[in-house]
Amino acid sequence: MSLVRIQKKGTVTLPSRVRSRLGLAAGDLVDVRVRSSNIVIIPRVAAGPAKLPNADDEYTPAQRRYIDARLDKADKDIKAGRTHGPFETHEALIDFLHSQRRAVRKKTPSSKPRS
Asked: Is the pLDDT at 115 greater than 60, yes or no?
């Protein structure tokens, strides 16, 4: 809980920890409502792609190029029909993944013994 003061013109400053927890920044819109005797402030997502999170904010340009190349390869694989499944259950998927791992281990000699 945070205690804030209402200023002369009715403005209220939301504490920085509240803004950061909700992902609010300067210029963002909030909906203010009265429910019973409470004031409810609801963050509103602005329309348009400019406000949506973007992977460019999280990755370096080199990482982004690598990710994009892998996604392009995956798209080509899907279009060419190189996919697996569908699987009836998640257990079937897990069994398939384990079999793939075993197959890779058989092909690749290990440099150190397994314990």
From this structure: no
